[in-house]
Amino acid sequence: MRIAYDHQIFGQQENGGISRYFAELLLNLRNYSDVEVSVVAPMHMNRYLLKRGIREHVRGSYFPFRFRGHRRVIGAVNSVALPLYWGGKGVDVVHETLYSNCAAVRGRARVTTIHDMIHELFPDELPASRTVAAEKLAAVRRSDHVICISEATRQDAMQILGLNLEQTSVIYHGCSFHQVAASSEMHAVPRPYILYVGSRGGRYKNFDALLAAFGESSLKGSFDLVAFGGGAFTVSELGKIRKVGISDAIRHVTGDDCLLAGYYRNATAFVYPSRYEGFGFPPLEAMASNCPVICSTAKSVVEIVGEAAAYFDPNDINGLRDSLERVAGDAQFAADLRARGSARVKEYSWQKCAEQTLSVYRQLS
Q1: Which residues contact 224 (CB under 8 A, 6 or more apart)?
Q2: Burial state string for 278-302 with b = 16 or more CB within 10 A and e = fewer than 16
Q3: This prediction's pTM
Q4: Model pLDDT for residues 156-194, shown as the tens digit of each residue
Q5: Which residues, 6+ apart, have CB-to-CB distance to 349 below 8 Å?
Q6: Count of the separate structural domains present in the chain
Q7: What is the domain-level CATH number for residue 294?
Q8: pLDDT tens across 287-325, in order?
Q9: Please, where are the H alpha helices in 184-273?
């Protein structure tokens, strides 16, 4: 069986959740003797494709330069070179890695993965939401099968895009962050802290609620709030931080996965206040790093995290405050969350994800 992943996400992401997903699929599928798997990307900017075990399956070259408009250059090269790289080689299954209005490549069967329905559910909070939603619909309509990364995402996709149950499968992501966590080091911290990870933009991320809850909590004055990644605080965020009185107790940090793992391991708790997510890697990363998890009751979050977190209603700031104070103040409760998290994260492996995805491919070929 010949399986190919197209160039789209690899020409847009240097690293990130979606490109990591496809790289992990390739890394696991290459071990099957009856499977030939490749990424067809004449020019790409993705670091996952440079890793040993993956780069040997990439038909294309890495573009190392970064400047304003470098993605447009990569896109232009791919539009010209793609027929040359793709032609003359039959493919049983093409798995598109991003949404587009028309297919750039051909295959006997076509698969698309829906990672979330954020652009459709929160159209005013993300750039180009209408364009992305239209491209997603076009990709879904030309696909023979659609993979959703959670049951919550599938239900939203069926309702919004009109998909039938038979057209879809739910296949969870894996988590390999325990490998990073094992190599990270504990380090001394000036004060205990609560950790938030990732993007903060958009109402659905609910970061404002975390600022308000932390500002009202008994933790203020003895704990810090650390925001890892997601870019520096905006002028608007700095104004809200001043308003709740935590300017001296909040820090922004950025770095690689190894540094992130260290912050997870040192944190008193990790907080995930989102109103909506398609899946959510950070809670699993926290569990893999032996960090207690506090989560909102957003549908997909509860589905993925199960009983391994302290929960709060995303619309209830007092409930979030109470959860922060309980985990920080009750050592036995925090230890129980660590134990539950350690057991829960073992349920998510990239090998299982690849096996289930291959089953879909086989049914279509």
Answers
A1: 190, 191, 192, 193, 194, 249, 250, 251
A2: bbbbbbbbbbbbbbbbbbbebbbbe
A3: 0.93
A4: 999 999 999 999 999 999 998 887 777 777 666 789 999
A5: 174, 175, 176
A6: 2
A7: 3.40.50.2000
A8: 999 999 999 999 999 999 999 999 999 999 999 999 999
A9: 207-216, 235-243, 257-266
